[in-house]
Amino acid sequence: MPVQKIGLLLYPGCMPAGLFAFADLLLAANRRVGERRFEVCWVGLDSQPVDSVHGMRLQPDSTLAAANCTAVLIPGLWADSEAKMARVLESNSLLIRALAQLDQQTQLWSYCTGVCLLAQSGRLSGETATATWWLADSLQTRFPQVNWQFQQTQVFNRQTATASGASGYLSIAKALIERELGVVAYREIAKLMVLPRPEPAAPVFSAISLLEQADPLLRRLHLLVEKRPAQQLNVQQLADQLAVTARTLARRIKALTGHAVADHVRLIKLNQAGERLILTGDSISRISDSLGFSDESSFRRTFKRVTGLTPVAYRQQFKL
Q1: Which of 109, 151, 166, 287 is most deeply buried (CB count within 10 A of its CB)?
Q2: What pLDDT digit, counting tens, does each position of 303-315 carry?
Q3: Distance in angstroms (rounded) separating the CA atoms of residues 295 and 140
Q4: Residue 8 is inside which H or E element, if any?
């Protein structure tokens, strides 16, 4: 079997943790089959050391143009606004041009905010793709030629792959290893390395991760909703707690999320319930009571309406 050479792309300000984890997974895959099926190569625009996030300086093994990789993995960077992403794209124009000029047979994979660089290169034009949810409006406006599917956490095409979230590299690695070595091999590697699931529990909850909330009002609302019982989540009371009018709250949440306040609040509370279904063995009744829902039957109905699954089926499908 030919060795697949995977380039791990370094660029200023990138988050390399996912690249290190990806390299570890491919090393484990090689050990699992007792032969070198994957080769890792750290690549950069040039041969100079690259300052990644937190000041870590990493040395590329090769330039992107000369590496002759089967595929290149583009990591994300820590960006909390569309304005910062715009600056990143502008400052990395030479790198983006180099990505665009790679041989068309070179597969390009990216995750989290790194998808912006891939989209800017033009290699996603006419393709289906996903990315970190809060960039949805910006990406749809900037790259209308891409078929964006933000409700999906990973999208795989023949020559490209994209995934949302800072751990999106894991779904790409999983797909690669399962394709080359089989599902059983990946399961053994995942068990040995105690890997998390590569996807969030349900797509409907993917847009409300607290760590990905850049807007201060959204963060404050999220924390407030998590602390209060479901029966006490009155929009006017929430607005009072946040020191804004109910009208202002409604306008801001609609603009930021596309949801009415009540719908967004319901998602936050049901996401709490979903996490407890996955991470604990608590009964449905206990979860409903502890989160302050009015009664178990209404909780079950609401949960199924929003997620498409009953609490029991949700637990069975996503239990770690």
Answers
A1: 109
A2: 999 988 999 998 8
A3: 41
A4: strand 4-9
Fold of 203-318: Arc Repressor Mutant, subunit A (1.10.10)
> By three-state DSSP, how is residue 161 classified?
strand
Residue type, 199: E
Helix (H, G, I), strand (E, B) or coil at 200: coil
pLDDT at 114 over 80: yes
Give the E-state strand segments of 116-262 in sequence order.
Answer: 128-129, 147-148, 154-156, 160-163
Q: How are beta strands 50-51 and 38-44 bridged, if at all?
A: unpaired
Q: Are 308 and 205 in contact (CB under 8 A)?
A: no
* Cα gap 32→187, rounded to integer Å: 11
The CATH class, in words, for 4-193 is alpha beta
Every domain range in the chain assigned CATH 3.40.50.880? 4-193
Alpha carbon of 90 to those of 65, 84, 121, 191: distances in Å? 20, 10, 12, 41
Average pLDDT on 9-30 reads 96
Q: Mapping DSSP to helix (H, G, I), strand (E, B) and coil, where does residue 132 land?
A: coil
